[in-house]
Amino acid sequence: MLWDLNDLYFFYLIVEHGNFTKAGQSIGITKSKISRRISDLEEHLGVRLLHRSTRKLALTDIGQIFYQHCKAMVSEAENAQEAALQVQSTPRGRIRVTCPALFAQSSFAQTITRFMKRFKDVHILLNATDRSVDLIQEGFDVAIRFQSNNFNDSSLVVRKLGLSTSSLLASPEYLYEYGYPESPQDLVNFNCFAKTRNEGIAQYSLTHRDGHQININFQPLLESNDWLVLKQAALSHLGITLLPEELYREEMKAGQLVPVLSEWSLPEASLYVIYPSRRGLIPAVRAFIDFIAEDIKTHCTAHIAQE
């Protein structure tokens, strides 16, 4: 049966300092207490470790062997403490991140690579999914989401990163063939696509620059829970779709997609990073959270509006 490891440490200190008094003073306990602990240790082992005299202490043969093992134990404990302190100050290790599939397909992938170039000792496991996740139960360190209402646990921190905008778009070829809708009500006469998980009627909520709001219900020609499917359908000249700006910036620059009803805007989506309380956060997670917040502000201002 393993006894109190402190007794081994006390024995090591006594040998190092040469007497009970100095050993006790080094850790703030009395000479009598540390002497009694060593006597108890010898009794437990059934051997004498020290020859005691009024002038000095001397190790027995078994005491010398025992001391070498105690010295190795103290050295390993110091190494373990140093390793723990190093981890506390240097970002390293693995972090588990979950983000929407859309975000992984957009500029966030570049944010990840920029982070990895700066913090080469951090390993990232990225789970791209649109489903609701239980951050604690599933072992994620960080979640990035366009809504925060699924994370009501008081032990979680919800930090807003910015706003994501969306637009109605179509290819020039489609609009050349079928014309431009002049008002939101005209959309019901065009092929429109929708991101939805439920079959049936879809809806666009639009706000005019003068503040007037309107909801347009329509039967989508194509509905999918994958933004890329809707984007490809628009690029294939099949109709009009709503897309987050993360997905259409390059195509708009290239003239492959153009805005429809540009005087009308769609609701903005708030982007959040969610993580457990900062208390006890390992440096790798803390560094990742701070990095993405700054990186989005620096590199993604074209499509993530800062508040």
TrEMBL record:
GO terms for molecular function: DNA-binding transcription factor activity; sequence-specific DNA binding. Residues 3-60 form the HTH lysR-type domain. Pfam families: HTH_1, LysR_substrate. The keyword Signal does not apply. The keyword Transcription applies. GO terms for biological process: DNA-templated transcription. InterPro entries: LysR-type_TF_proteobact-type (IPR058163), LysR_HTH_N (IPR000847), LysR_subst-bd (IPR005119), WH-like_DNA-bd_sf (IPR036388), WH_DNA-bd_sf (IPR036390). Keywords: DNA-binding, Transcription, Transcription regulation. Belongs to the LysR transcriptional regulatory family. This is LysR family transcriptional regulator. It comes from Legionella quateirensis. The lineage of its organism: Bacteria, Pseudomonadati, Pseudomonadota, Gammaproteobacteria, Legionellales.
